[in-house]
Amino acid sequence: MRETSLPEFVWVWNKLQGLATPQLHLRVTRWLESRWRAGDRELLLLAFRNSGKSTLVGLFCAWLLARDPDTRILILAADLALARKMVRNVKRVIETHPLTAGLKPARADQWAADRFTVNRRAVLRDPSMLAKGVSSNLTGSRADVVICDDVEVPNTCDTVPKRADLRARLGEIDYVLVPGGLQLYVGTPHSYYSIYGHAPREEAGEDAPFLSGFRRLELPLLDGHGESRWPERFATEKIEAIRRRSGPNKFASQMMLRPVNISDSRLDPDQIRLYEDELDYTESQGAAVLSLGSRRLVSASCWWDPSYGAPGSGDASVIAALYSDDDGGYWLHRVAYLVHDPDITENTDEATQMCRQVAAFVKELFLPSVTLETNGIGKFLPGLLRRELAAAGVAAAVVEVASHTPKVTRILEGFDAVLAAGALHAHRSVWETPFMAEMREWRPGRNCRDDGLDAVSGCLLSEPVRLRRVPSPGRREWRPGGAPHKARTEFQV
User: Considering the entire predicted model, what is its pTM?
Assistant: First the structure.
């Protein structure tokens, strides 16, 4: 058995089942064996739906046990039922395959639905193969091989807390795996913020991909020439039928292995253009100019959707600043998620802390006004905000707005046309906030985070505010037409 290759092991099994072995499966098995023999112990196998990848990985597990019966394999899946399915398949292979003869134990209690122990030399506490859901308690388990089979599914990755929990759970593998053990991830991406992503998602707080350093094999349904990787099963007509039924996003995710949202989104952040320029305030010949790179800005909107800003809980208190240029472009320069410090509330209450942050935000960005949504707690804040703006030496107006339009309607009206026109730009700092994740995951009618979306839509829907013509002390008015002008006349009044 030790001389039998994995492709041969799979070919014998398929022959017993009356099946052919497609080139796709040979490629997968050759890759698994070559990586195993080369000593690579962090592997990622991505293959399109219904490609047989889980079946092949089950045969790989049986091959490992036939080579070394003392091997301990842990199967992690999104739920226990899915992990048990893999265990059942491997049990069936061991019972039937001629190259695994003698592995099945005589005792029935060693041959359970979610675990089994083959005949082996070593006396070990852990079974030869064990099935666990990814949310299960792994404390005390030890394994030589951990297979993560479809741990990312919609139910484990469709919200920010679920994705964080999934990553935390998978981090426990390091405490289960023996030194030199193998981690093998098998699946398809189900989220733009997939654990299988090539690049880090900065807006999600990643500075490296979750599986950075893993050796990868990616097999989308269509190869680089647009040809089917399994033409016997997936002919051109069938591929087109799958594409029509599933829609573009699901087809891209599940069949082409691109990390996108499976469900269609009304707001696509990929339509936003990234920029890195900073504001440049200059004065020349008595006039002030505010620019981004070579673009002169002509108006600004600032919207604050307030809440108590409790760290890690409740609605977020979000303020956004957006500028426009004379070519019709919109420049979302900052989005700030404000929080108060609970440790200093005895001396400075929550509302004052928030208003001071807003005053600093307005001053830093040369904003002529800030619009305050007075629904909810906002009704108590205008006077306090004006006081803090004056204390900070900021001559900016406070505009009070009570919104009676449903939030969903405001968001759609604010974003749809601007995104469709490709006119919205966002500073790199915005991509590092929760705003982009909110935008990508937002669905009308669903309970999604939308505090940042609400603030930015308020900016987009606001008319440019030109209320104050008198510049702040030491600063001239930068908006065109905003500076006072004294005309000379010969009239005697």
Answer: 0.65
